[in-house]
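chain below, 363 aa
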Amino acid sequence: MVQQGLQALLVAAIIAVICFVPYLVYQYRRYGQFSASRLIWMAVLLVYGTALLTYTLAPLPTPAWCAQPHAGLLELDPTLYFRNMWQMHAAGQSWSSVLTSWTMLQMVLNFLLFIPLGIILRHLWKVGVWLTTLVGFCISLFIELTQLTGNWFTALCQYRVADISDVIINTAGALFGAAIALLIPRLAADTDVMEAAKALAKPVTRGRRWAGMLFDVVTFGLVMFSVDVVLTIGYLIFAGLPDGDRTGAAAAGGIFRLIGEICGFAVLVIASLVGSGASIGQRLVYLKPVGKRPGRVLRALVTQGVAVALLFWVPGGAFYAVLWLAAAVIFVIFRVRGLSFTLTGCDLADARSQDPDNLTVHT
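prediction:
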C-alpha cells in the first residue's frame, strides 16, 4: 500500500511538471490572472486521480499468479460486507473485533476514498451534490469494470475482485464528500468572479514578471526543439545515414541545434519589436513596456541577446548564459521592472490599463 502511494506521488509529480506551464498559461488567458488556490486544488486533484488509478491497477499480475485457479473475482451481492461481519460475530468474535476487522476496514477505506472527490468537484467547479454523486458512481463503476475485464483485457488475467458493494460504498463516499463541501468555506477562487474581473488592469507583481520570463524560456525551448526535430527528420528522410559512418549525421545534428537556437532567439526578439513591444511571455501575462521605441529595441536585446551571445561566442558560454538569466530572475526581487527594463530606462504596465501611469512600475 505504501509502495502504491509512492508510485502515485511520483506519477503525479511527473505529470505536474509537464502540465504546470500549460495550466499557468490557461489561467492567465482564461481569467486574466494567476490563482494559487486553484493551482493547489488542481494539484490535489492530480495526486488524488493518480492515487486512485494506482490503487486500481497495481500491482499487476505475474504469469505464475495467472496460471493458478482463482475464484470469487466477481461479487454481485451488495450485502457481502455485512454478511461477513455477521458470520464473524456468529462464529464467536466480539463486536469490537468485528468492527476492527479487515472486512470493516476495507468498507471504511472504500467510503473514505471517494470523499475527496466530492469535495474537489464542489470546490473547483461548484458541481451540484447530486451530479457529484452521479460522477462518483460512474467513476466507481468504471473502476470495477476495469477490474472485471483485467484492465480492459490488457493484463495477463483478471486479478482484482469486481464488487458491486464497492460501487455503492464509493458512491456514498462521493455524496458524503459533496455534503461536507457545503459546510466548509470554498478554498478555491471563484471562477465567475475571476472571469468578471478579467478585463480589469491589475498591479504588476513579481509573480507576473517571473511567469512571463518562464513563458519566454519555454517558448525559446519549444521553437529550438521543433526546428531541430524537423530538420533532423528531413535529413534522415532525404540524406539517410551512411552505413557504419555517423560522423556526417552528428555534424548535421550540431548545425540543426544551432539553427534551432537562432530561430528560438529570433522569435523572442521579433515579438519584442512589434506591436506593444512586449515579449511573448509578457503578452501572455498582460504586460507591456512603457517608453520610447529605441529603448524597447535595446530592452529586447538585453536579456535574451546577451544570453545568446554568451552561448554562441564565449567558450563554455552555456554556463555564463544560465548565470545571466538567473541574475535577471533574481533582479526582479529588488526591482519589479527587472534587469532589462532598469538598464534601458523603460517602465512596465498592465496591458489592459486605460491609464498606464496608474499601474506602471517605476521601481
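The radius of gyration is 28 Å. DSSP finds 17 helices and five strands in the chain.
thats it, cya
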